[in-house]
Specification:
- With 353 residues, the protein is of the alpha/beta class.
- Helix 7 links the parallel strand 9 and strand 10.
- It folds into two domains: 177 residues, Glycogen Phosphorylase B (Rossmann fold, 3-Layer(aba) Sandwich), CATH 3.40.50.2000; 164 residues, Glycogen Phosphorylase B (Rossmann fold, 3-Layer(aba) Sandwich).
- The radius of gyration is 21 Å and the shape is globular.
- Helix 1 crosses helix 11 and helix 6 crosses helix 10.
- The protein contains eleven helices and 13 strands.
- It has a seven-stranded parallel β-sheet with strand order 3-2-1-4-5-6-7, with helices on one face.
Length: 353
Amino acid sequence: MSSVLLLSSNGAGMGHLTRLLAYARRMPDDHRHVVSLSQAVPVVSAEGLPWEYLVSQGSSGLRPAAWRRLFADQLAEILDRVDPDVLVFDGTHPYSGLDAALASHPRTRAVWSRRGMWRPGRNTDQLEKGAWFDAVLEPGDLCAAADRGATAQVPDTEVVRVPPVTLVDADQLQERDAARAALGLPEHGPLALVSLGAGNINDTGDEVGAAAAALTERGIGVCVTAPAIAENAYSGDVHLVRHFPLSEHYRAFDLVIAAAGYNSVHESLRLGVPTILVPNRHTSLDDQEGRADEAARRGWALSAPTLTGGRAGALVGELLDHGTELAEAARAADPGNGAAAAAAAILDVASAA
């Protein structure tokens, strides 16, 4: 049986780590080990997987050169101790030091898992690092028709492309009542998940505040994942939801208002929740505007550059009127979860070790 080391970069959210767990869930139970530069890595405990945390350069306070040496040494020690058949790195920027660690343990093969939809002209130098790996794995994007980034130009012969990857499939969702009970939410009444990052729920000039005001006006409860938002004094019906993976409980929500990152878009569309996408325009690499615009063009979700300035009310109203049609169209276009195919491809590389 092959052993697999799953290494996630330190992204802005949970995307890299969650994608690796999607692969891990479709692999044999034993011989999976997670290493992450994300401080969120303890959530892996709920998956029953062993895990280790490596401090990122930003959190370490070290100069880049010193951190790269530390990272290479720590990862080399883990490779010697765990002795995996294959290492899977998920991220858009393979760290210098990863190549040195792999060279120190030549028995271990390596796979680079990287999502597409890079901003045009960005990160092109990173493609050369594909030479560090035995295979490059690309989880697809439902909105790939709008992809103008560097990875979209790579020939199919150089990568293993699979359908879009999510941790959870629709047939794994908890039923509505059970999902609400698990999250401590009201049994009755409409609820919306608002997942727009940090924000001020009391400020209608802020994306979160504008969303909350529009939902409350229509008698829809607001659910947020950020404690700092939920704890602000607010006259509406606001609930803090804490669970990983939250997507298992998506039937608790009637609507979703979310940023247009890879995971949030594919979870909402695949799991059939009517959605308004508000792309984060300040990401360094992820082309959220392109993804959100394409989802709206295909009739799978609503998209808006901002909810402020009185826009939120009309968008929420439109979603209440047409959200079911949008969600059904998105599910009809879904080619299926690529996580199992990705896991199989990784194990194929491992078996060649």
